[in-house]
Design a protein that fits this description.
This protein is mostly beta strands and 540 residues long. It is built from four helices and 21 strands. The strands form seven sheets. Strands 1, 2, 6 and 7 form a four-stranded antiparallel β-sheet that branches. Strands 3-4-5 form a three-stranded antiparallel β-sheet, with no helix packed on it. A three-stranded antiparallel β-sheet has the order 8-13-12, with no helix packed on it.
Amino acid sequence: MELMKKNIHTERIKSKALLQVPLETDINVSDAKPDVAKVIYDCGKIKVDEIKTGMNKIWVKGRLCYQLLYQTEGLLSGDNILSGDKNLSPDKREKTLAGMEGEIPFMEEIYLDKLEGQDRVICRSSLDDMRVHIINSRKLSIQAVLSLEPRVEESIAEELCVELDNSGDSELEKLEYRKKSLDFLETIVKKRDLLRIHEETRLPAGMPDIGAALWKNAEISSISFRPMDEKLGITGELSLFIVYREDASGRINWYETMIPFNGTVECQNSREGMIADVMYETGHEEISIREDADGELRLIGIEMTVELEIKLYEKESTSIVADVYGVSCEVQAGIDSRQFRSLCTELNIEEKLTRSIRLEDADPKILQVCHSDARVKLEETTFKNSMLRLSGEIELQVLYASNEGGEGLHPVLTSVPFEIEKELANVDETQVEQYSLSVQIPQQTVSIKDSSQFEWRGTMNIELRLYSAKSEDILTELSVMPLNADVLEKLPGFAIYYVKPGDSLWQIGKKYYVSVGRIKEMNNLTEDEIKAGDKLLIVK
């Protein structure tokens, strides 16, 4: 007797953890930079450089990379004012902006249960909060909170019995076996890779040449992944924002734009229609100011690497042998419980949000909107009573220009709270093993309502996949032996069986060593369904 088996590949979470890390440090302003009067804009990004694994613990080494745009305290010579502000008094024209950047290293030890030295660890990082305080004109304090979420996913190769093959063995005719359908996700591709982005944009005609860049930042505004034949297609948009001092006049100016990008990475065995679950983090970033064909500094080049953790799944449905018993022989069936991952549900949600932002009385009046930055901060994600609930806030930073004060750009900080509820049809939250959640803000605009009020509008895109881990009993081995004579003697020649609640023809046949087909034939049944109280004739 031989079991015909099919090999499949799946995975399960072996271990995971969450650690919030506070960082606090003082930084000195370099001698080449002017004194700090007020921090106008800030940005921080977490870079994980290395993960070392040990027995039941890991060490995560990384950096908090920060960037600051600030108003200078001292008066500088020259006409360093915001472009277009011609009516400012001479004493105010000498105040300007400056920028600085740096990084804060960290090393954290995290306990991971069941971790072994050869396991591969995936670590998602996020910057939960960052605040910059001025100690004095030459020293700043940075306080930040970051989250590290390491996890180990174990790859599993399973053998499923899909048929019994006796190759002429007459014992097969003495066996009764049943099959069941098994739905699961099979892991086709699991790999790490890099996407290299090389893009270039030009200052629009009419904008002055770049003299010195004070602030330059590029972010992935949106990104999507599509499995293709033998590769993964990637498309998205970069949000670019720079603040610079003009080459000729030395005045402050700015430029922002959206830059589309696309690319592919090789994925052997990838096919269209597969489910792509991809985590990404930006790695190396470089924004350079380049000369055009006329020798003018008008080109902005972006070099960026995107670190990808790629998993491609395929939905599978197969029929497997669930249980076996003997009719005229004794059968010992090895049944083992295994877990299989399946996709519970997949949601794509688009939520439109608005927020009115009113300035304080002491703030300079609005002349022009320069830039806005929106970051999603999720506070709670729950699956309960067949409902998805997301709550949190969008942290907004808005830069605007004013014709008051001669300080160039002014910041506005605020937040947009949100709470989203969506029904999860046919989802048992007790079986949810893992979820993949991506939240992006691909579109946002800030308009001026009046000289003291903005209106922010944004679109939040949410992609959610819920995975379950269901336990299934599968047949792992089978042995057939002659029926014991004592067992045969104790079986009745015929019997009347009264069906009890929960009984099935399979259970009754297994008890009396009679095939399901024989029971149906003797009782003129056309289907397998029976109900409590039915009387069945059982013939030996």
